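Worked Example 4.2. Consider the chain below.
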Amino acid sequence: MQKLFSPAYCLLSFVNLIVAFGYSMIATIVSPYALTLGAGLTLAGTVSGIFSLSALIIRPFSGMAMDLMNKRHICIFSTMLICVSFVGYAFAPNMAVMLVFRILHGFAFGINSTANMALISEYIPKERLGEGLGYFGMGQIIAHACGPAIGITIRDHYGYQALFLSVFLLTMLAAGLLLVWKNATEFKNIKGNRPAFSFKNLVVKECIVYALTAGLFSLGNGIVSSFLVLFGEQRGISNIALFFAMNSIALFLMRLLIGRVVDRTGLLLIVNLSLAFTAMSMLLIGSSSGILTILVAALLKAVGQGSGQIALQSACIKKVDASRVGVATSTYYIGADIGQGFGPILGGKISALFGYQTMFFYIGVLMIAGAALFSVYQIRKGRVKAGTPTV
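Applying the procedure from the previous section yields the following structure tokens:
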């Protein structure tokens, strides 16, 4: 079995952890900070949402850039842009300037996350891709679990400006590590290995179904993040925030264990089980009246998300050769961005009409429908590959 924990793999995983901490430390702070600059609640919400929109817009182009240019240089460039955005936040005199740097941050984040994933995949043996991506993603889980609390603590003791400058220095450390690191697989200008630029090449069409299926897990994340606390208040469930702690711990453990399973198990089985667990989680949340049910739902959601996302992510990368890993990665993230952005909108519409319980029920049904459609797609694809008629 080929070695996974090479020096390059460990360094890139550490860089990913640092960048994820920088993002997480300010994620819950941006909207309150916007209010201090004179924004109303609507504009403060827009400041948060425009970040995801900017990342979504840049994704296809960033993926193509990975395959046309030097991945390490793009990683360094995007990390430096993130640093610039943090300085911009710290010294923004008004909301107009804040919005400009928020858009810049979204663009930089969209490029950086794609570049990190494309670069790390070069150092993961193909037969251990699920395992390698699982360990790599643990940095984001740790950051999302700890980062917000650290950010709020710094803000409360030293102010917003100190917080933004702290994450600037932290992210500069990541940029510095990338600058001194010598990439053993540096891009060589070999014409035959470089895909020509074309709008048709901005996505990998073979990965679109996988990306949209992965988007279902992100849609569930968006729903839970936006409405779980409100649902808990309506039902009188105390300590509902324990859901997020349980989910983070379980997701961390899943990342430790699931990678090897993904590498040895069929994609259809993994994805269907993952969507089933996620559906059960949504149905349990909607029917819950106490914290115990909520914690079981958190565990089920972690099992579903932790296995499904890794399986689909590794499947996207395996679909292409090394020259198109960047586009495959960005295609995967487009699905995740759409799900994360569309989820709260869909959830808001349903909950406004029918209430939170019905909303969670419908999202659970959507997961089951997604599993059925994915099964049809995989079976038809298998028949076509075998030369069997699909009708």
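The chain has 13 helices and no strands. Residues 201-391 form a domain with the Growth Hormone; Chain: A; fold (CATH 1.20.1250.20). Compare this with Example 4.1 before moving on.
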